[in-house]
């Protein structure tokens, strides 16, 4: 049966007592062209920072100070093919669109230390608030309009291990292009390796059509009456001020296999794809929707990201840099989510993903050209589960754990790999599920989680 984690870190450690030792800007190792980078309508709405932390155990051949030097050199080399990373975000006054000005203004690089050891800070999977000290989001000596779009922080622990914290503006990368960047970073940290993946930087492949053609209704999108250039985050990312409990629930490989078998009962649609993601998403949707209130006729709309690289005609290059994901959705009234066979809920999730064809994706992009809106739903499932950030091999080894820095929000449920328990999880194929809800809703979610996972 699925589990949830308790007491994952010492509550007395709310501050890692980080000491900043050095803060600098890194620049491309060779001269790059000064130019402006077009940002697609998908990029336009993602003007906020994403932070990830990558923990590494001690390696006697690579002390943290050696790692910091290697990373600096690797980054300087990568800022040539990734010239936009060293640029600055600006608003084009004529088009009223955000662009990246490739002006070699630099990325941030911070070296820090803590007197704690990796073992002392507890379960790395859990969103310990103290981990925020392992990330720098802005440099104090720079003006607001000159802040780097990317800042690295290498923090050494007294055990010889270290953390690599990365803050990037989401306009730079989606999950896949960020993973590709990390593969390149790792390759350049070696002495004699070529880049793993040559980045494809032309984002005009996702430009709106001229004239725009909206060929589908888009209930998953919300029209806004304000300019897209305003410093706003999508409503689905809003953090309402209310008391939230948060838990990490775990589904191991056996649990997921059970859900797949359950999805085959009562005859799923012949086009339904019974994948790990689809069954886990359907399972979470059911628990989340039914934990919120008692109105059986309430409509629940769940959003989840779909990579469109392979769905377009012609397909985007796998090495496409930028954001090539759109929000698919599934909607149902709560009574159906409670009483329909699990196979039908998986059908709805699969149908939502299947709807994301080339024409549907182009229609959303064109919708954004006209309405400047955001994805909108009851909640979003954000998956880092299959990205493989912990599989990137650096000269000093693979990360002990990699994950986003989590800010708990009621309307975002996060999926990420359970790599801490590989031995009990069939090579780490399980998933951790971060849920943040008001106390009474969390209690109900937990009850439903175990109820729906129980054998019939």
From TrEMBL:
Keyword Nucleotidyltransferase: yes or no?
no
Q: Which InterPro entries would you find in this protein's record?
A: CAT-like_dom_sf (IPR023213), Plant_Fungal_Acyltransferase (IPR050317)
Organism superkingdom: Eukaryota
Kindly list the GO molecular function terms attached to this UniProt entry: acyltransferase activity, transferring groups other than amino-acyl groups
**Pfam families attached to this UniProt entry:** Transferase
UniProt keyword annotations, A-Z: Transferase
Q: Which PANTHER family match?
A: ACYLTRANSFERASE GLAUCE, TRICHOTHECENE 3-O-ACETYLTRANSFERASE
- Its family? Belongs to the plant acyltransferase family.
Record's protein name: Omega-hydroxypalmitate O-feruloyl transferase
Species source reads Olea europaea subsp. europaea
């Amino acid at each position: 049966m699925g589990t949830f984690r308790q007491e994952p870190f010492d509550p007395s450690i709310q501050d890692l007592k980080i000491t900043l030792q050095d803060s600098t800007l890194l620049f491309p190792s060779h001269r790059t062209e000064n130019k402006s980078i077009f940002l697609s309508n998908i990029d336009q709405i993602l003007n906020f920072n994403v932070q990830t932390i990558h923990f590494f155990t001690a390696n006697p051949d690579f002390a943290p100070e050696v790692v910091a030097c290697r990373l600096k050199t690797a980054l300087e080399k990568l800022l040539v093919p990734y010239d936009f990373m060293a640029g600055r975000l600006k608003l084009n006054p004529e088009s009223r669109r955000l662009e990246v000005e490739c002006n070699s203004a630099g990325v941030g690089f911070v070296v820090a230390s803590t007197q704690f050891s990796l073992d002392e800070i507890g379960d790395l999977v859990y969103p310990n608030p103290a981990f925020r000290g392992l990330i720098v989001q802005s440099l104090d000596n720079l003006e607001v309009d000159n802040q780097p779009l990317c800042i690295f922080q290498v923090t050494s622990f007294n055990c010889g291990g270290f953390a690599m914290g990365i803050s990037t503006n989401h306009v730079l990368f989606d999950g896949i292009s960020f993973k590709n960047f990390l593969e390149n970073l790792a390759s350049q940290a070696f002495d004699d390796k070529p880049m793993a993946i040559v980045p494809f930087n032309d984002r005009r492949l996702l430009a709106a059509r001229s004239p725009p053609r909206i060929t589908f209704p888009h209930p998953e999108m919300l029209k806004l009456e304000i300019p897209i250039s305003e410093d706003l985050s999508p409503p689905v990312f809003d953090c309402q001020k209310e008391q939230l409990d948060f838990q990490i629930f775990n589904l191991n490989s056996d649990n997921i296999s059970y859900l797949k078998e359950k999805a085959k009962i009562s005859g799923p649609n012949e086009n339904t794809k019974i994948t790990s993601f689809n069954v886990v998403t359907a399972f979470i949707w059911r628990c989340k929707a039914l934990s919120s209130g008692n109105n059986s006729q309430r409509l629940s709309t769940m959003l989840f990201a779909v990579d469109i690289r392979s769905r377009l005609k012609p397909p985007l290059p796998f090495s496409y840099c930028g954001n090539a994901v759109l929000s698919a959705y599934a909607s149902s009234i709560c009574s159906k989510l409670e009483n329909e066979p699990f196979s039908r809920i998986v059908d709805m999730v699969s149908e939502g993903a299947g709807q994301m064809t080339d024409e549907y994706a182009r229609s959303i992009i064109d919708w954004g050209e006209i309405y400047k809106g955001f994805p909108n739903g009851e909640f979003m499932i954000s998956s880092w589960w299959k990205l493989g950030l912990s599989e990137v091999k650096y000269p000093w080894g693979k990360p002990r754990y990699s994950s986003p820095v989590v800010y708990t929000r009621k309307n975002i449920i996060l999926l990420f790999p359970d790599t801490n328990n590989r031995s009990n999880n069939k090579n780490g194929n399980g998933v951790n599920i971060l849920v943040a809800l008001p106390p009474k809703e969390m209690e109900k979610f937990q009850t439903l989680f175990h109820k729906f996972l129980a054998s019939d």
